[in-house]
């Protein structure tokens, strides 16, 4: 009697995240990517023990001198990276087209070359002449800065072998292709293989490697999700096309914090670090103006002051317009509802426009109180007191909630010369780090209130009875 060997069941795997399923589906159940699930290959035999590259040693005997970070020459980038460029680190810099990624990395490459450390800049999107013109404009020409225009992985590895750089910049990963690997450059398979090869060289030769990545229309990094797992640091370069202000955020960092933000000014002369960006987001009025208030938000661990402006006008429409810029429309709607219910402001029949100064984007809930003050000031036609800042998150019951890092926010407002800060009531001020129990902090008068009506009453912005 013959017995048939059991038939092996096929399995399907997502090329983006590695999720497996017993049957084919059009959309990954883990990362929700479309068209990424394909039949997995037959399982291979188990790996046998083999030779080791270096013997295992007690962790206390592992040398760390080779992994000490060095400055990139751009202080704001060092702030985000947690000290600078680490030898052997793989860094992924992503951002929208035209935001200034190539300009920033050319500046980093030039600064590294000025320290007599050899740098290799590989461009796959521009010609060598185009990069040279940008370097002439920004003052980035140096003998230790080598430039290569290549789109083949083998040629890039040959350049690395010949130049032996300390810093390698690849612009961008989607333009480099590997011969012998199926797919076109920028595809899932190609990106994975090219990134793995570059990172392998970076680790074995202690080369700091910075890889430029494209983003999709929703702002996420294009290509397989495994790319973000392969690298050590993931940075996002953000900015509006109509503004020179740029920000670098760390989304992943094995060598430092992920809540730091670097600020830059992009111009035709190149890119420069902005160590004190508050002045970009606060308008200096020559006279008192109704409908403005200054908020203190946190960008990473850095307090940042931004001015919120509001304009309310009687609306002839049945459904008044609400237009926002730089703030979330849902939070503005909530603030307007709370003002209507708990502050006795009749604003339902007004067109409402809320915007920030300088293109700042406020996602911090602590800006709720500043939005409310600006709206109330515009509705009443009464300017808020000059030199006042408002800090606090507003609840649906009209209460003010405590926000994080309040001492740092108050200290930053005091440093910039503001006179009054309206904050939520909470624990006694002496229990906060570095904040004394008195009501004045470095010339700034701190007023604690319980709800939105008390905050407006403190700033003399309540409607007449």
Automatic annotation (TrEMBL):
Q: Which PROSITE patterns match?
A: RECA_2
Which superkingdom does the taxonomy of this entry point to? Bacteria
The question of whether DNA damage is a record keyword is answered with: yes
**What is one GO biological process annotated to this record?**
recombinational repair
Motif RadA KNRFG motif extends across: 252-256
Q: Where is the RecA family profile domain?
A: 66-215
Its keywords, alphabetically, are: ATP-binding, DNA damage, DNA repair, DNA-binding, Hydrolase, Metal-binding, Nucleotide-binding, Stress response, Zinc, Zinc-finger
Q: Kindly give the InterPro entries that the UniProt entry links to this protein.
A: AAA+_ATPase (IPR003593), DNA_repair_RadA (IPR004504), P-loop_NTPase (IPR027417), RecA_ATP-bd (IPR020588), Ribosomal_Su5_D2-typ_SF (IPR020568), Ribsml_uS5_D2-typ_fold_subgr (IPR014721), Rubredoxin_2 (IPR041166)
Stretch forming the signal peptide: none
Q: What GO cellular component term, any one, is given?
A: cytosol
A single GO molecular-function term is: ATP binding
| Stored SUPFAM superfamilies | P-loop containing nucleoside triphosphate hydrolases, Ribosomal protein S5 domain 2-like
Q: Which residues bind ATP?
A: 95-102
Pfam families referenced in this protein's UniProt entry, alphabetically? AAA_25 (PF13481), ChlI (PF13541), Zn_ribbon_LapB (PF18073)
Q: Where is this region: Lon-protease-like?
A: 351-465
Keyword Transcription found: no
| Annotated family | Belongs to the RecA family. RadA subfamily.
Domain notes, please?
The middle region has homology to RecA with ATPase motifs including the RadA KNRFG motif, while the C-terminus is homologous to Lon protease.
Query: What does the protein in this record do?
Result: DNA-dependent ATPase involved in processing of recombination intermediates, plays a role in repairing DNA breaks. Stimulates the branch migration of RecA-mediated strand transfer reactions, allowing the 3' invading strand to extend heteroduplex DNA faster. Binds ssDNA in the presence of ADP but not other nucleotides, has ATPase activity that is stimulated by ssDNA and various branched DNA structures, but inhibited by SSB. Does not have RecA's homology-searching function.
Protein name as catalogued: DNA repair protein RadA
| Organism field | Nocardioides exalbidus
Q: Which gene encodes it?
A: radA
């Amino acid at each position: 009697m013959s017995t048939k060997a059991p038939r092996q069941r096929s399995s399907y795997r997502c090329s983006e995240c590695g999720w497996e399923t017993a049957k084919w589906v059009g959309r990954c159940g883990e990362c929700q990517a479309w068209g990424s699930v394909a039949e997995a290959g037959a399982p291979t035999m188990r790996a046998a023990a083999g030779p080791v590259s270096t013997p295992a040693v007690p962790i206390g005997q592992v040398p760390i001198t080779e992994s000490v970070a060095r400055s990139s020459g751009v202080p704001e980038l060092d702030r985000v990276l947690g000290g600078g460029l680490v030898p052997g680190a793989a860094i992924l810099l992503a951002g929208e087209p035209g935001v200034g990624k190539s300009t920033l990395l050319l500046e980093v490459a030039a600064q590294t070359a000025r320290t007599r450390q050899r740098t290799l800049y590989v461009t796959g999107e521009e010609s060598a002449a185009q990069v040279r013109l940008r370097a002439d404009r920004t003052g980035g020409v140096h003998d230790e800065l080598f430039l290569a225009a290549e789109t083949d992985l083998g040629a890039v590895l040959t350049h690395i072998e010949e130049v032996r750089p300390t810093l390698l910049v690849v612009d961008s990963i989607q333009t480099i292709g590997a011969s012998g690997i199926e797919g076109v450059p920028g595809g899932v398979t190609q990106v994975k293989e090219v990134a793995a090869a570059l990172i392998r060289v970076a680790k074995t030769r202690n080369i700091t490697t910075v890889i430029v990545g494209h983003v999709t229309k929703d702002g996420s990094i294009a290509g397989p999700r495994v790319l973000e797992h392969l690298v050590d640091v993931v940075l996002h370069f953000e900015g509006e096309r109509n503004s020179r202000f740029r920000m670098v955020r760390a989304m992943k960092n094995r060598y430092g914090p992920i809540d730091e933000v670097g600020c830059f000014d992009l111009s035709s002369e190149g890119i420069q670090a902005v160590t004190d960006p508050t002045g970009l987001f606060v308008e200096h009025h020559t006279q008192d103006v109704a409908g403005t208030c200054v908020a203190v938000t946190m960008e990473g661990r850095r307090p940042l002051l931004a001015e919120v402006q509001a304009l309310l006008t009687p609306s002839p429409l049945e459904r008044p317009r609400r237009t926002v810029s730089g703030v979330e429309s849902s939070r503005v709607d909530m603030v307007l509802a709370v003002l209507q219910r708990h502050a006795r402001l009749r604003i339902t029949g007004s067109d409402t426009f809320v915007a920030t100064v300088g293109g700042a984007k406020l996602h911090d809930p602590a800006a709720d109180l500043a939005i409310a003050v600006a709206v109330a000031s515009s509705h009443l036609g009464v300017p808020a007191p000059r030199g006042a800042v408002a800090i606090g998150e507003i609840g649906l019951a009209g209460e003010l909630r405590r926000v994080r890092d309040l001492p740092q926010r108050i200290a930053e407002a005091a440093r910039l010369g503001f006179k009054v800060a309206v904050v939520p009531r909470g624990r006694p001020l002496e229990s906060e780090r570095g904040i004394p129990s008195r009501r004045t902090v470095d010339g700034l008068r701190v007023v604690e209130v319980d709800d939105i009506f008390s905050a407006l009453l403190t700033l003399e912005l309540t409607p007449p009875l």
